[in-house]
């Protein structure tokens, strides 16, 4: 037994064998049990949110927190293991006489692991924010009001941004030993320069608040902004995300959403259809009147069409221009397209029924002019 005791007291590179064994044992225990401990800690934290998240399964909470808690346990384990040895942690890497200051390898390692541990703690906080937002989003899908569907992602981004700012100042204070209050006071002097540099970001942030206050649209609405059309997917901290009809994601700054001409297609009760058809000049006046009457009767007979009419508008170079205007009640876009197609086919049938045709640009030479033909006959 004495030999074993002497064996563990042998010194190699400034540390005893006992210290190296403790180093290896702590790291081994940490790596082996970190997954189990992380899951247990996650389940323990879930009991705090059980009443709030009664409709959410604990697997979701555990899956969100498992990696950050594992990182926290890993950093703490390695830090605890490294502190079981003394050399080379006691080696001075920086020395200054005035003021008298010594920095050792151990001091540097303390700062590095303090930095990593604080990061992992705020990572856990961010994941908890994600879980709270997940539960609120589940509840929002049940309600009929779409405002909460739009508000929750925005509040989630806002909260995570504030947490990141808080983590940044905590790191400055504890790791870099900077007086945070003095730093914040100093920022007041350079606040104008920062505000000017972040002018567009601030405008987009204010634009997001304006969107939530005015509520010109909600998530799921179809809007058109300066000719860009799409379905609102989410309103973020800086921009609004749209899904175009061809399933392309369009990101528009919030400032542009409130400054531009915005048309909420979902809120309108009707879609207006306005176009011209050209009849050939060979069509007689009676045929034109009959075509107009039958088009008007066709538009009036459809229950999905309001205020439809067709009129003989003007004489064009190669055709008699007939204007067709009607309003279609609000319906899914695919049904709207199908209705327009049905009306167009009906117009073709009406025109063909009355012996007319659709005109297209035709050029005649002087020799083909009717008056010149009569002059040739008289000669």
Radius of gyration: 38 Å
Measured between the Cα atoms of the first and last residue, the distance is 143 Å
Number of strands: 12
User: What can be said about the biggest beta sheet?
Assistant: 5 strands, antiparallel
What is the count of helical runs?
A: 12
Strand arrangement across the biggest beta sheet? 8-7-6-5-9
- Output the structural class: alpha+beta
SSE topology string = HEEHHEEHHHHHEEEEHEEHEEHH
What is the domain tally? 3
In terms of per-residue confidence, which ranges show pLDDT below 50 for 5 or more consecutive residues?
Answer: none
What is the strand content? Answer: 15-25%
Q: Can you describe what's shown?
A:
The chain is 57% helix and 18% strand. With 379 residues, it is of the alpha+beta class. The protein has 3 domains: 2-142, no CATH class; 197-264, SH3 type barrels; 270-353, Alpha-Beta Plaits (2-Layer Sandwich), CATH 3.30.70. A 5-stranded antiparallel sheet has the order 8-7-6-5-9. Helix 4 runs antiparallel to helix 5 (147-174) and helix 10 (285-301) packs antiparallel against helix 11 (333-353). The chain starts with a helix and ends with a helix.
Question: How is the topology of this model organized?
Answer:
Blueprint: H1 2-8, E1 11-12, E2 15-16, H2 17-49, H3 58-82, E3 92-96, E4 101-104, H4 105-142, H5 147-174, H6 180-189, H7 191-197, H8 199-214, E5 222-225, E6 228-235, E7 239-243, E8 249-253, H9 254-259, E9 262-264, E10 270-279, H10 285-301, E11 305-315, E12 320-329, H11 333-353, H12 370-378
Antiparallel strand pairs: 1-2, 3-4, 5-6, 5-9, 6-7, 7-8, 10-12, 11-12
